[in-house]
Amino acid sequence: MTAELRMVLYEDDSVQIQYIDGSRLQLSPCGSEFLFEEAPSALAHPLEQPRRIHQRTHFVISTYREQLQRALEFRNSYATCPFLSESIIHSERKKCIFIDITEVKWPNRNTDDNISMQNGTVKVSSLDGHAYLFLSKSQHDFTVHFLCKVSQQPESSVVLSEKNSQAPKDRLVEKKGNICTHGNLSRQKLENKENGLCYQIMKSTDPVGRNRVDGTGQRKELPSGMKRTCLYVWVKQCWSVATCPEEWKYPLSLALHFHDKISRRCEMDTDITHSTALTSEVSEEKGKEVSVLPRALLLSCPVPHLHRWNFCDSLLQGESDEDYSYPELLKVVWYKGITYRLTHKNVNSIEIYPGDGSIFKSNGAYFGNFFTHYYSQEGSEEKEEKMYSVNNLPPDRPGSPYSLNSLIREANRILQHCAKLRLSLSHNYRICCWKMAPGICDNIVLPMLLRESLMPNVGRFLAYSDDKVHAMFLDGTTLTLNWNFGSLTEKSQVNQGLTLGWCKLTFPDGQDQLIQIQHPGPHERYVAAVISWCRRLAETSQREKPTHPSPVLEENWSVASELEKIKEFNLLLENSGIPNQISKKKNELPTGEHKPESSEIMLEEDNNKKVSVALKKTSEILRDIDCLLSNSKK
């Protein structure tokens, strides 16, 4: 099999792999389908398209089986939900268990049971032995191993297949009664024998009978479709301590707390600031001792039309854009044995794992300009740190296992690619296929326009609810940046709301350019104008924010409620008879004649008085409606 050159996992859990021979593989976000592009032949015409094979993962042929196994292993190590096809998993990894494992219980915080430490690595085991957590020596990343049920077919497909398989059996019974009855009896004996054997195995592995008792203490019956539901696989996942998922926060806090206690006992001088902060954060979680395990995705995707197969054309794009052509944020990149892990919560940050136990982390006021190297000397438990600047990297040392310059420059290049996508107005609003399943999908809310300003002789500025600011200048240049208007403005920090140290400029000819806000260069006037507008808008929103809002102000504004208010006002205005009186007075005026000035004044005063009375009644009714709504919500 050809070795991998680059493996990329995107934010939607899709995978793209580039092999040394030029062939490529793309895996759908749910993992149920793949597309393999063979390497172009040396004798092929330059315009000839390479051969592509599109197949279901569950029915992969032997030619691409090994490549697909490695691609799924890479995906499942970092994806939110694994995809586990029974047909391509090695038999030694499968385990037959007759209970539905959906959650695990961890040891109590006050005890050190099921927690151990060896060579600086802390191991935390669940009470039932269905999950393990390993905290690395550097305390920056951890690995989890847990049992997960293999991917199943959708329930509708299972019911339909059972009905189809049952129909011919019934017809066969009518034709050959005695023979078929004998066959059914033989089959029933065989199934009973198999179930008895499985029961003995389960009993031998679980003498206490714990697996046959549910959480309430009642005995559970074996399911009818045992062969489909009892197959489990050990899944290994790697996570960063900075981006720990909810289900692993409590066991991670146990590991960090245990490492802290051992370090104090051994009087080791280590920096454990981040572990203490995370421990205090996780200790407040509800249901902290129980973790709901991730579930495998279905074998067949319910919405395969959402899969995008878009290998880029090397003739149309440059080499720098070809590696990350998929229009999605990057989550993990594996390149020549080095792993790059990214985070996109508030700012773009990246962690680099060279494979020697050390770690590089981007930091600084503008992420990507500086990298901190955390490592420990051989034979010593003391940790050391070194900071490198992207603009002033030291030369590579002879004999080093990796090039420091190429490693950090590649990380900076990945960060710039993600910054371009984050500054796009449409990149993260696409619907992912596996998130459409009930219970997984988060509510996808499209951004709303919060504020729009037309600056004289400058341009038009717009602020959206997803922290994006889009400015269109009069000369045809557009600028996009990220600004968090919810953050508090402080005088000590000039750009407090700035969540990304980059902005994107689009020139009138259509060319894009990524610019550092700290060093805009010749484009400073564009950047300064937008940042000044963002500061004024943030200060205005903070001043307008009420200190003690009334119940009416706390009520969410909606178009329907405002329309109801307008209808109530129009109804009261029509019933008051004011429009009819005005029209009647106008009709009584003869053509060409004018009323005396005193009559016009009296009519105007009478109309103003009736209008004011109607408006007063309308105001009182609307106030009563608002109070009634606020009281009903309480």
Structural write-up:
This protein has 13 helices and 25 strands. An 11-stranded antiparallel β-sheet has the order 5-4-3-2-1-14-15-16-17-18-19, sandwiched between helices. Strands 6-12-11-10-9-8 form a 6-stranded antiparallel β-sheet. It has a 6-stranded antiparallel β-sheet with strand order 20-21-22-23-24-25, sandwiched between helices. Strand 16 and strand 17 (about 360-365) form a beta hairpin. The two termini are about 65 Å apart. With about 625 residues, the protein is an alpha+beta fold. Among the domains are: about 330-405, no CATH class; about 450-545, Arylsulfatase, C-terminal domain; about 560-634, no CATH class. About 35% of the residues lie in helices and about 20% in strands. Helix 2 crosses helix 3 (about 175-205) and helix 11 packs across helix 13.
